[in-house]
Structure formats: structure tokens, C-alpha cells
Specification:
By secondary structure, the protein is mainly α. The chain is built from twelve helices and no strands. Helix 6 packs antiparallel against helix 8 and helix 8 runs parallel beside helix 10. It comes from Hibiscus trionum.
Length: 332
């Protein structure tokens, strides 16, 4: 009975063909860990990589962080996606610079109309403080005699001119500045210009001092006392020293009015010396003193002509520089 009972089972097992595919064996092997009671056994499942995607499925976007970017990732940002913007640093700096120039130029453009009245106000001040008292004021109201009062009254007239000249130069400097704040408005004169200006000024200062020394030592006859000499050439020497100081300040500050400053002072100096000729006649000054004043008038007329030639040269130089800059911009 036992043999009969076991025989069907063995026969059934031997008769059934054991045909299994490789996939069934793989599935069967994959189900084994689920049946095993040992929990610490885990099998690594291989990852399936696919490099080809369908047409309707977009390719994934990968963000590769460098070492520097990893340190600054999401740092100092108020928004979540601020650091993921595709804008580069150069573009950001350019946009910030444009915004800054727009904001700074906007109030400047609004106040540009304030410069227009200065084109008439500055020359009017120069005319009222310099030319009107010298041309229309009678000499009898200024010159009382060869005394200190006449000397102080003449110095007062020159101080009024100096005040108007200072205001004129400040207005000219304000008008000469660029409309754009970001552009530099500084202008430095060449060394040759500074040298020849100092030579001309020191020559005009040395001539009256040599005349004073020669008159004091008795080399020039007849001698001229100090008070009449101070009335004739004292305001001239004082204003010449003020001009030297003003020019040095404009050179140091690199103001664009360095070309205008000597022209203004030298034009008034010619009138100042012509006034000295009239006062010399009133004082009865010696001939050598009158010839000295005439020589100074000729000297400063010559220097004024040289200054005007420099203004013309500078205008041509500026035009050539602008033309070259326009050609460079066109080529770029």
C-alpha cells in the first residue's frame, strides 16, 4: 500500500516536463528574499538607465554646482528662486549702472534751466564791477591827492572788481561742468602753459619793483616818493598777486576755467594801467615813470593777445579730439 501510495506522486513528478523560461527563473529567484525569514539580507536592484526619451517628454534639466557656486547657493537672498535666475553678474552690473545713471541724471536734467540765466548774469557782474567804475566814475571823486586816502580808494575799486571777477569765475565753472554727473569735468592745463604764464606774470611783477629800487637808490632822476609811486602802481602789484593766487588754485583744482582766468584779469589790467597814466598826469610824475607805465600797457596787451591765441588753439584741439572720438565710436 505504501508503494502504491508513493508511486503515483513520483510518476506524476517524472511525467511533468520541467520547462521553465529564464524570465520565470529570474522572477522566482527575485521572490526568494520575500520568503526568507532573515531580514538583514537585502539585494541591490539594478538601476535602469534610459538615454532616449519620447518626443512628447522634455529632457530633464540638470543643475551642476561648482565649488564657488555651492558656497553661495541661496545665500543672502530674500526669494527662493533668486539664485536660480539665468542673469549673469555682468548683465546685473550693467542694469544696475543704467538704473543708477537714470536716477542721477533725472534731477540734473530738471535743473539744467538754472544755468541759462548765468550766461548773462556773470558777464553783467563783470561789467558792473570792473568797467563801469573805471570808465564812468570821475577821477576827482577817487583821487584827492598823493596821500593814503587816494591809495585806499583805488584799492577799494580793485577789490570791487575782484569780487565781481570771483563770482564770474564761479558761474563759469558751474556752466562748464558736464550735464552728466558720471562724466568727469576736470581739466588740467599743460605744464608749458603753466610755465609761460608764470614767466609773464613774474616779468610784469619784476619791472615795477626794479623801477622802485632804481628810484630809491637814485639811479633814476628825478626821484619819485613812495606814496605817489604806490598810488600809481600799488593797486597794479596787489591785483597781480591776486591773479597769481587764483590761477594756482584753478590749476590745483583742475577747473575748466583755467583758460579764462588770465584773460579776465589781463583785460582789466590794461584799463588799470590806463587809469595810472591819467593819475600820472595829475601827479606830475617824471617821464621815466610815464614811459614805464606805457611799457607795461604794451606788455600786457601782448600777453593778452597770446592768451587769446591759446583760446583759439584750445578750441581747435577740442574739435579734433571730438572728431577722433566720434570716429572711434563709429568703428566700435
Amino acid at each position: 500500500m505504501a508503494s502504491l501510495a508513493q508511486s503515483p506522486s513520483t510518476s506524476s513528478i517524472t511525467k511533468i516536463p520541467q520547462v521553465h523560461s529564464k524570465s520565470q527563473l529570474f522572477l522566482k529567484a527575485s521572490k526568494v528574499p520575500c520568503v526568507l525569514p532573515f531580514r538583514h539580507i537585502h539585494l541591490r536592484r539594478p538601476s535602469v538607465l534610459c538615454t532616449k526619451f519620447p518626443q512628447w517628454e522634455p529632457s530633464p534639466v540638470t543643475y551642476a554646482l561648482t565649488e564657488k557656486a555651492g558656497e553661495n547657493f541661496l545665500e543672502k537672498s530674500s526669494e527662493l528662486f533668486e539664485t536660480l535666475r539665468p542673469e549673469s553678474k555682468d548683465e546685473a552690473s550693467v542694469t544696475k549702472a543704467k538704473d543708477l545713471t537714470d536716477t542721477t541724471n533725472q534731477p540734473v536734467a530738471e535743473f539744467q534751466f538754472l544755468k541759462w540765466p548765468l550766461w548773462l548774469l556773470g558777464p553783467s557782474l563783470l561789467l558792473g564791477t570792473g568797467m563801469v567804475p573805471t570808465l564812468w566814475l570821475p577821477i576827482s571823486t577817487i583821487f584827492i591827492g598823493p596821500n593814503v586816502v587816494s591809495l585806499l580808494s583805488l584799492i577799494g575799486l580793485d577789490c570791487i572788481f575782484n569780487l565781481g571777477c570771483t563770482l564770474f569765475l564761479l558761474m563759469a565753472d558751474y556752466c562748464a561742468k558736464s550735464k552728466n554727473v558720471t562724466q568727469a569735468s576736470k581739466s588740467k592745463p599743460p605744464l608749458s602753459y603753466q610755465f609761460w604764464n608764470l614767466v609773464a606774470t613774474l616779468t610784469g611783477l619784476a619791472i615795477p619793483l626794479m623801477i622802485l629800487f632804481g628810484s630809491h637808490k637814485g639811479y633814476l632822476q628825478p626821484q619819485l616818493p613812495f606814496i605817489p609811486y604806490a598810488v600809481l602802481l600799488g593797486p597794479y602789484i596787489l591785483l597781480l598777486a591776486v591773479q597769481m593766487l587764483t590761477e594756482m588754485l584753478t590749476w590745483n583744482w583742475e577747473s575748466p576755467i583755467w583758460l579764462v582766468t588770465p584773460v579776465v584779469y589781463e583785460a582789466y589790467r590794461v584799463l588799470q594801467l590806463m587809469r595810472g597814466l591819467k593819475l600820472g598826469v595829475e601827479l606830475g610824475a617824471p617821464a621815466w615813470m610815464m614811459h614805464t607805465i606805457r611799457g607795461l600797457v604794451c606788455w600786457w596787451v601782448l600777453i593778452l593777445g597770446v592768451q587769446l591765441m591759446r583760446v583759439a588753439w584750445f578750441a581747435g584741439f577740442t574739435a579734433r579730439a571730438r572728431r577722433q572720438q566720434s570716429y572711434a565710436d563709429a568703428d566700435a
